[in-house]
Design goal:
With 483 residues, the chain is an alpha+beta fold. The chain has helices spanning 41-48, 85-100, 137-140, 157-160, 166-177, 182-202, 223-231, 246-250, 252-266, 276-284, 338-353, 397-406, 424-429, 443-448, 460-468, 470-473, and strands spanning 7-13, 31-38, 53-55, 58-62, 72-77, 107-113, 120-126, 236-242, 297-305, 308-317, 321-329, 362-368, 384-387, 394-396, 431-433, 440-442, 476-479. The strands form three sheets. An eight-stranded mixed sheet has the order 8-9-10-11-12-5-13-14, sandwiched between helices. Strand 15 (431-433) and strand 16 (440-442) form a beta hairpin. Helix 2 (85-100) runs parallel beside helix 7. The protein starts with 6 loop residues before the first strand and ends with a strand.
Length: 483
Amino acid sequence: MAGRFDTLGQWCGDGEGYRCGYCKNTVTSFSTGLYLVFTSAERYNRLLDRGWRRSGKYLYKPSMDKTCCPQYTIKCSVEDFHPSKSQRRVLKNFEHFLEHSKAGDVPARKKGPSTSGGGRHEQMVVNNPENSKAPDSSSVVSMGTTSATSLPAFDSSPSIAPSSNKSNNDHVTYRTALQMSESKKKRDFRRLRRLKKIAKESGVEWQTLDVRDFGPSPSPPTFRDRIDKLLQNSRFQLKLVKVGSEEYDATFGECHAVYSRYQATIHGDSPEECTPKRYTNFLCSSPFQHKEGAELGAFHQQYWLDGRLVAVGVLDILPRCLSSVYFFYEPTFESLTLGTLSALFELHLANKLTATVPSLKWYYMGFYIHSCPKMRYKGLFKPSFLLCPKGYTWWPIEDCLPQLDKAKYCEFDPSPQEEQAITDADRSTQVVISPGDWKAMQYEYYVMRLGGNGEYFRDIFPALFKLTGRVNARNICLITDDH
């Protein structure tokens, strides 16, 4: 009988509304809960595909058509992901910080005008008195245009003629380039940047060179190359630590300290809400069994800078995905855009994990909440897909956004397949377990032979089958209410 199920849990139901962590309304958030004593990585992977998510051993599924801020499960393809320009900038800012700061420096953010679309972008600087000197003007325009011998055919030669004032000449070239079309501007910026690099290596003036003499430009670095370069920096280290291991135990105190500062500063939690016990229940306890093996289960990815722990990503490595559970960091490092940065590192990790877990193809980023602007950044990791809350099918996020702009709750699948309702046969053969002797038995035997409380499961079984799916429900053993 015990072999009939791989998951043991206590049904918690949907209950009353509670305070929403996104819109901050008091009793407008609704979900269904299931507390798990144990489960398998395979079963939890399947439950993720039904819209469930865990917090410690407690699983919850938002009541999508009822809650104030519908939460759609979002996943990104590991193999097909390519970072956007803004995501590459986040990596570049972090690289700049590693190369131009010293141990103990705190990153700061300086906003400057953007040359694309009238928006704003951010340039990373370091809060170090020695670095407070204004940057050299030639470095500010290191992405200028091309040389005089390869300019577009319009009258701009006086603007880029050799000058004794090199800094002023670069600024004029930069302003001239802004008048070009977008495609020409980007092309010529790249040419001049490459030309200056060649000139510096050769010890000559860049104005005397023609970029066409040096063949085609090298291919830009791949996403994996960019991450690998960061990981080669001796100041920075990533550690993947399995929850419950000796290394996890050795760093527990440091992780909890970072967590406490993060919760207090970012979320305004009190010390009573950040105790070691609460931290353990929230981010360290998991329902996965030890027999999962070394490659699957709950992990902490630790970010170390100059020997100091600065951030932790809480992750589940499952048969078909890497699932992000939570991420916390030292608040003083917030300006490094650590939310995006951690997602990029986790995508890189997922890519590496395919060597040991070949079936792992996806990176699950938790929930996408379109009604919460701060959570929309998850949709920028492409290609991404949202889970239909009714048909449990996956849809490209680009197809979902127009619908979400019109309504908070949407069913992306126009013709979802209706699931078969629970039958009397399902109900009678469902496995339950009594906390009195912890003996697993069929529900029919529990009611008919032992006089168990059949009324307790009257509404639970239909909800279990509907919300977890028939295959999952048949493998979940529920604890009875006997005392």
